[in-house]
Amino acid sequence: MKNQETVWNSSYLNGLSWKKSTKDIKKILYKKSILELGVGNGKTLKPILSQNPKEVVAIDISEEAIKIASKSIKSDKVIFLNEDFLKFKTNKKFDVIVCYYFLNNFRLRERIDVVTKIKSLLKNNGTILFEDFAKGDFRQKGKILEKDTIQKQDGRICHFFEKNELIKLFRDFNNIKVEEKTFSPIRLNRDIKRKILKATIK
Ligand SMILES: C[S@@+](CC[C@H](N)C(=O)[O-])C[C@H]1O[C@@H](n2cnc3c(N)ncnc32)[C@H](O)[C@@H]1O
User: Fold this and answer.
1) How far is ligand 1, taken at its centre, from the CA of residue 99, in Å?
2) pLDDT higher for 189 or 8?
């Protein structure tokens, strides 16, 4: 299996992109230090910056993602880092860690490592804002690697979460509020369901 850095780089070079900016990000970022995991093309970074945070460290394993995001978003508040989050070393701790469509990119063993790492980088009274795919989403199609984890045709790993699984994964935190949302992105076909989980974790 190709490593995920190679897979993501070639996906971006082949034109992978998300056109719409993320809309609903909790209004708690003003003057806060933020870590954004897997910045991608910056579709969540834009609304983060619109809340006027103190600073944002935006990390991505893909050099191509960092090139795209840093070209489209010019701000002296952002530090772009082309690094594997699991190898990221810093003395800093963050007020808020934004984990949007990031954790799905890992197999179970690594998801646990990511959560442990997040905990080590979050201030005591800090918050994690989480959004990701939920089980049953119409995109859950591909080669099955593990329970609810698939590999897409282009090699990207993608996991689909259940509410209880998320609660268990973040059990070392004091408080987790999770909501499940279902949309029909195509009005004429109600069988196609987009399912996501949104969580605020403290
Ligand atoms: C779905 S995309 C971007 C989502 C983005 N957070 C947003 O909301 O628009 C996920 C990103 O995570 C990055 N990624 C995957 N594994 C990573 C890792 N170990 N460390 C850092 N970034 C990683 C990928 O390169 C990809 O750009």
Assistant:
1) 9
2) 8
Tell me the CA end-to-end span of the chain in Å, nearest whole number.
Answer: 35
Instruction: Taking residues 133-140, report their average pLDDT.
Output: 95
Is any ligand 1 atom within 6 A of the Cβ of residue 4? yes
- For 28-62, give the DSSP string: --TT-EEEEES-TTSTTHHHHHTT--SEEEEEES-
**Domain membership flag for residue 143:** yes
Domain span at 115:
4-15+25-201
Probe residue for ligand 1, chosen from 20, 62, 78, 129 as the CB with the greatest number of ligand atoms within 8 Å: 62
Could you tell me the CATH number of the domain that includes residue 75?
3.40.50.150
The answer to whether position 157 is within a domain reads yes
Residue 159 CB–ligand 1 contact under 6 Å:
no
Q: What percent of the chain has pLDDT above 90?
A: 90
Say if 20 falls within a structural domain: no
Task: Count up the domains in the chain and report the number.
Answer: 1
Which residue has the least CA distance to atom 19 on ligand 1?
Answer: 84
148 sits in the region (left: phi over 0; alpha: psi -120 to 50; else beta) called left
pTM above 0.85, yes or no: yes
What is the tens place of the pLDDT at every residue in 87-114? Answer: 999 999 999 999 999 999 999 999 999 9
